[in-house]
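Model it.
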Amino acid sequence: MDRATGPTLTGREFAVIDRAAVEAVLNAIPDPATGQGLMEAGVVQGLTVAPDRAGFVIEVPASRTAAYAPVRDAAEAALKAMPGMARVSVVLTAETAPAGRKASLSPAAVEQTRAKAPVPTDRPAHVRRVLAVASGKGGVGKSTVAVNLAAAFARHGLNTGILDADVYGPSLPTMLGLSGKPDYVDGAMVPHVAHGLKAMSVGLLTRGEDAMIWRGPMASQALTQMLTQTRWGTEDQPLDILVVDLPPGTGDVQLTLIQKTPLDGAVIVSTPQEVALADARRAHTLFQRVNVPTLGLIENMTGPVFGQGGAAAEAERLGVDVLGDLPLDAAVRQSGDAGAPLHTGDLAARFDAIAATLAEKLGL
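Modeled.
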């Protein structure tokens, strides 16, 4: 080996992929509108680069998506041809900003700035009701509530599905004991089935140790694909209810869900202390602004540690129902770690009561 020049990289095993190399490849592809490279033209959004993979969004005006489809294909092919590249994700999406102004926000976030609520396209095929489980902040046990609530619906005899929309921190595979990528039939993903539930999560599409370093448009695209390209039900056996476990907060993923499908209602989960209730108010405000009914609040982790009754007082101020309270109990943690929802005991009975109330509110 010549020490002056260093080793020659001739095989995929020696290749090193870095951001500069990816940007150079993308800049060699001309933008149809300006003739500049894609990076220089500014149409590449949310570029993420890892040692063996890359992904980004091409964000263009809705009227030009057809013209950019070949560009997307060319970019994907060029990146796949890079030595050492194992996985490429290129998403083509449309801006919703007014013509002539470059969008600085994702499509869902731009939608939030409009006076009118986004108009949903349609609910997923063969799904009767869609229920969102939300929280203003993380750490309040929202996913635990979503999984156990879905299991309670199934115990009531309802054909139930659950979608893990928390694309940055998917917990559904662990809480239901699931692993392995879903099968594809006629271009649609077949959800896993566990404990009487049809389940889909981004955690089933990636490796467990992968970090979802995605900007808003990529996260929103992942949610859209799981929502609309999963075979939740059939004409003969429709899904009665799809429970959607939303990520905490009021960002792009929440707005994408609202934009893509009519929600029949939302449940907000909060612990009793004020710091959590303040964020629960924000979640309720979001649903109010987009005309999604808040069907009630669930007070989680009640007891000596976090207190009790805060959600009841907050629900009265907001003019919504308290669906129930769930004490802090080691059995919840144990069942989640074991990959099985609660089926017996006081807590399971409380989830059954909440599910019965919600089923009545939803006309199921």
